[in-house]
Amino acid sequence: MTSNARPSRQSGKVVQLRKGASLEMVRLACPDSAQAFLISESFGRPVVDSDGIRDLHHKIIVDTAESLSEGLGERAMQIHLQRIVGSYVGSAHGAGQFYSRAVSEARDATAKSASDARDDDLDGPVGFDSNAQRKREFAADMGIQAHALRCAAEGVVTAYEEVVGEAWKPFQRHVDNPGQTVDRKAAELQMAALD
Predict the structure, then answer these.
(1) Which residue ranges are recorded for the region named Disordered (predicted)?
(2) For a designed S-S bond to 124, which of 97, 98, 128, 162 qualifies (C-beta 3.0 to 4.6 A apart)?
């Protein structure tokens, strides 16, 4: 019995990269030192020791590398530190995005409270803050947190460069055929069988 089945044609694979958060993305999303100081001053929050956070996290990475230097080769150290630094940068980026959403909600609530025709946005009873005020204070807290995490990320990125000898870049994971569903794959196989 002979088989007339043809081998299926391999279409060119589309390989895309899934990019991680970069330090530039963190800097765009998180408040800098000047903005964090303004937030602290305007909302009566403690002023964050930005330089202290950067220095401490820089030291943590340098000390980690020194303690592991006997047991890890150069490439293993680079991979290990890449992952650690990536987690700090990813955390700061996530905090920055959350801060941006909190600011948008605070702006919306503040704009709504400015309307005299809306009863639901009026100030609460004496001694209680309005909804808009609570959202502004929440956004301020998120801004301070995002700034602190930005400083930590900046510290570990500079330490990575010092230890490894090259600038840190986010890990880029290869994603084969993004968005291709099982149905689409099945349809391609069926069409290949019909050719």
Answers:
(1) 110-129
(2) 128
DSSP 8-state class, residue 45: P
Q: How many CB atoms lie within 10 A of CB 22?
A: 16
Question: pLDDT by residue (tens digit) across 167-192?
Answer: 888 877 665 555 566 677 777 777 77
Does residue 2 sit within a domain? no
Secondary structure class of 144 (helix, strand, coil): helix
Q: Which domain holds residue 96?
A: 19-116+128-172
Q: Give the separation between CA 147 and CA 95, rounded to whole angstroms.
A: 9
Residue 39 within a domain: yes
The amino acid that residue 113 corresponds to is S
Question: What pLDDT score does 126 carry?
Answer: 53
Residue 67 tokens, joined: 């303690």
Q: Residue 116 CA to chain centroid, in angstroms?
A: 39
pLDDT of residue 14: 46
Does 119 score more than 60 pLDDT? no
H helices within the chain, ranges in order? Answer: 23-29, 33-43, 50-68, 74-113, 131-164, 182-194
d(CA 22, CA 33): 19
End-to-end C-alpha distance for the chain, whole angstroms: 21
* Spatial separation of the C-alpha atoms in residues 195 and 190, rounded to whole Å: 9
Using alpha carbons only, what angle is made at residue 42 by residues 39 and 45, rounded to the nearest 5 degrees? 65
Whole-number CA gyration radius for the chain: 25
